[in-house]
Amino acid sequence: MNLMERAFLYGDLLFESMRVEYGRIPHIARHFKRLEQSAQTLKIDLCGLNEEKFNRLCEQKIAEFEAQNPDSSFLRLRAVLYRDSQGTYLPLENKGKLELQISEITYLVQPEILRLGIYTPQQKAPGILANLKTGNALIYVMASIWAQENNLDGALILNTQNAIIESTHSNIFWRKGTTWFTPPLADGCVAGIGRQLFMESHTVEEKSCHTQDLLNADECLLSNALNAPRNFRVIELG
Questions:
Q1: Residues 23, 17: contact at Cβ < 8 Å?
Q2: Domain boundaries defined on the chain
Q3: What is the DSSP letter of 60?
Q4: pLDDT at 83
Q5: How far is CA 233 from CA 11, 21, 175, 217, in A?
C-alpha cells in the first residue's frame, strides 16, 4: 500500500494552510506550533521535525515554485502531516511524514458583504478533535455544496447543541456596540490562526453563538489565515 493512502483512506492527517506574501509566510511560528500541538493530540511522532527544519523546508518549496513562476505574488502553502504507517484503523507505528503543496491564490470577485446560510443537515460535535485541522472535512464539503445550491456565498456550521461555531472556511466574530464576541473553542470551532490574531488585537468575549446574536449584531466578520477579515450577514432560508 502506498503509505499516503492511509491519509486518503482514514483521514489520518493534519494540515496547515499558510499564506505566502512575496516569498514570506506571515506567522509561520504560530502555524508550526499548532501543527506540533495537534500532532501530540493525534499521537503522531514528528520524527525530528522542529520549527527550524519546518521553516527551511517551506522556504525551499517557495523558492522552487517562484523560480518556475516568477510573476506569482500571493501563494497558498499547505503543509500536510500524515501518519506514515501500514495498518488499518490501528496503525502499526506512529511516525509522521510531511508533504508540502503550493499553489497560487486566485481571488474571486465577491460582494462587499457575504451572504451565509445556516447548514442544518449535519452538526459538528465538540471534543478534542474539533479544534484541529484534519482530513475529516466532509461536513465542510457538504455545507459548501449546500451553500452553492442555495445561491449563498458560504455556510455556517452548527454544533450538536445547535450553537453556531464557524463557517466552512473561517472563524466567526460579531460585534454588538463596542464589544466583539466569538464562539469558545469548547463549542467545537477550529482553533484558527486568524482567530488568535483577531483576539490579540481586539477585546473579545467568548460566548456561544445563536442565530439571533448574528441577526441583531452591528457587524459580523469571518477570519482566517489566508484572507483579510470579511463582513457577512445571515440569510434565513424559508
A1: no
A2: 4-104, 113-234
A3: H
A4: 95
A5: 32, 29, 12, 9
The pLDDT score that the predictor gives to residue 40 is 98
Task: Return mean pLDDT, the chain.
Answer: 94
State the fold for domain 113-234.
D-amino Acid Aminotransferase; Chain A, domain 2 (3.20.10)
Q: Compute CA distances 20 → 106, 194, 233, whole Å.
A: 13, 15, 29
Per-residue pLDDT of 164-186, as tens digits, reads 999 999 999 999 999 999 999 99
In this structure, the dihedral spanned by the alpha carbons of residues 42, 48, 52 and 55, taken in order and rounded to 10 degrees, is -60
Distance CA 82, CA 107 (A): 29
Share of the chain above pLDDT 70, in %: 97
64: three-class secondary structure by DSSP? helix
Contacts of 203 (CB under 8 A, 6+ apart): 179, 180
Using alpha carbons, select from 76, 68, 73 the residue that is nearest to residue 19. Answer: 76
Give the cell for residue 174: 460579531
DSSP 143: H
Does domain 4-104 match CATH 3.30.470.10? Answer: yes
pLDDT band at 26 (very low <50, low <70, confident <90, very high): very high
pTM of this prediction exceeds 0.85: yes
In the predicted model, what is the mean pLDDT of residues 77-96? 95
